[in-house]
Here is the input.
Amino acid sequence: MDATKARLESEENAVQQRDDRLRFLEELRSLEAVRALRCDPGRPFSSAEHAEIRAGYTTDIYFIKSLEILESLGLDETPVTAEVFASRPGILCGIDEAVRLLEDRVDEAWALPEGSAFDKKEVVLRIRGSYGGFGITETPLLGLLASSSGWATRAAEIKTAAGDKLAVCFGARHLHPAVAPVMERAALIGGMDGCSCILAARMAGTMPMGTVPHAAILIAGDTVTIAGTYDAIMPDGESRTILVDTFKDEVEESLRVADALGDRLDAVRLDTPSERGRVTPELVREVRARLDMAGYGSVKIFCSGGLDPDRIQVLSEAGADGFGVGSYVASAPAIDMTMDIKEVRGEAVAKRGRIPGLSDTERLTRVL
Here is the structure.
């Protein structure tokens, strides 16, 4: 315990030192500052730190050049109003992060609420302030809205297909770990019932959801051994859901596990790989029938493995009670977001092809 405590204290000190260093990052406001930027060769991951995002390290270079030009003309404090709109319909996610990125940079901001449905070309965010205050945030601002809204939209499709049945996001393994919590939070915003990523779940104030991987069963050599030990050591309230496709036929393994755990078994999980045809409606129907015939009607069937809305619908009709979905949500295409300047010094403007002046909308609410 003393060694563990010392290690944790050392890690906490390292994190604090990193946070202290990042807290004093200067915002990039010139090409000279960009050229002077040096990156630590010992940096463990390529992902950006929070302070680096705020300081403009992830912005496109032309916003830095634009700012430097406007400053040289004495126009960087020009008051403008900008609007962000979407390229296609979806579910809005990332507004909470957008607000934190913009705070102390703009005079006012309005947005659709987090989790709102939006239409193509609908304004999701309106910003008013000096361009020099928020211009360099455009790249990260659009990026976080685009990615999060794409994930939330796919999650909403999954939950619609699942209806009142359980839908859990298992997508963290399909993304860089730096953004996996962002994706799984978006899945929750989109309506899914839970997620497996620990950090995402804890930030959302819930517990992560998941079972036991095939690896543990392969190492132990027997599904029932893992099921019994899981039941013995996991706290009450933690779902007793057991994988049943590792060694034996799924029906046989389901009955073996049910006999071993009795009424403490909550569900069996079917995750049959593509090499064996994946989870099919026929398999679900057989497992359901055999469990019912053996007196285990209360045991639910949880399915995973390459699921999408169409497969969820047919598996649900066959008797599945819950679904774990990873790649369909994680691989969602971003919903392209565009920021346009619509007013300069209170006068309506627009680039060619766009209508000058503020868009007509009554759905935005004040967020800053």
